[in-house]
Specification:
The chain has 103 residues and is mostly helical. Helices cover 55% and strands 11% of the residues. It has 5 helices and 3 strands. It has a 3-stranded parallel β-sheet with strand order 1-2-3, sandwiched between helices. Helix 2 links the parallel strand 2 and strand 3.
Length: 103
């Protein structure tokens, strides 16, 4: 497992890099991290950066350790193809709403 106890993170690539290797993560619930660690097969988030909270998240992850293949499959959902498809879908939805408002 990878533990990332950051006080600030944008989109922490290290989390996806770990998950792409089949390694689940325990990470602080800050900024962009909840978007990366959004399923049990990805790992666990902890709200406080205290030894007790980190230990509890690590313990919970060890108690329900996901299969490496499941963690890797989760990370594969963040490929450039999937990211691009998501962006196009978002832009299409915005364009449709704008067209509806204009008419």
């Amino acid at each position: 497992m990878l533990v990332l106890a950051s006080s600030r993170e944008g989109w922490a690539n290290v989390l996806l890099e770990a998950m792409a290797c089949g390694t689940p993560v325990a990470a602080s619930n800050v900024w962009g991290t909840p978007e990366v660690v959004a399923a049990p097969e990805a790992g666990r988030l902890f709200s406080e950066r205290t030894p007790a909270a980190i230990a509890a998240a690590v313990g919970a992850l060890l108690d329900a350790l996901p299969a490496r293949a499941a963690t890797r499959a989760y990370a594969e959902g963040f490929s450039w193809d999937a990211t691009t498809a998501g962006q196009i879908s978002l832009f299409d939805a915005i364009a449709r709403r704008s067209a509806a408002v204009a008419s």
